[in-house]
Automatic annotation (TrEMBL):
Its EC number is 3.1.-.-. It comes from Desulfamplus magnetovallimortis. This is CRISPR-associated endoribonuclease Cas2. Its cofactor is Mg(2+). It is an enzyme of class 3 (hydrolase). CDD domains: Cas2_I_II_III. One of its GO terms (biological process) is maintenance of CRISPR repeat elements. GO terms for molecular function: hydrolase activity; metal ion binding; RNA endonuclease activity. Mg(2+) binds at residue 8.
Length: 92
């Protein structure tokens, strides 16, 4: 499973913790965006549970966008960057 995770965190300390947690699941491609390419359902649920404990539900937001294999192959970008890391990504 390939998940694009985007966040908007108000508090710097919380944002640092969110980034640290997300680095264990994926690759940071922008300041508030991570690509998580080898997610299983179990890992995804663990990630969501970890984020739920960290964020302030009144001010912060974390969004999870699952992308199919076809969508990942069609990702485009401008400027610096690289194609999504999807060598472990399998179509289910």
């Amino acid at each position: 499973m390939f998940i694009l995770v985007c966040f908007d965190i108000v508090d710097n300390r919380v944002r640092y913790r969110v980034v640290k947690t997300l680095k264990g699941y994926g690759v940071r491609v922008q300041k508030s965006v991570f690509e998580c390419s080898d997610m299983t359902e179990h890992k995804f649920l663990k990630l969501v549970a970890a984020m739920e404990k960290l964020i302030d539900h009144g001010e912060d937001t974390v969004r999870y966008y699952p992308l199919c294999a076809g969508c990942v192959k069609r990702v485009e970008y401008s400027g610096i960057g690289s194609d999504p890391l999807c060598e472990d990504f399998a179509v289910k």
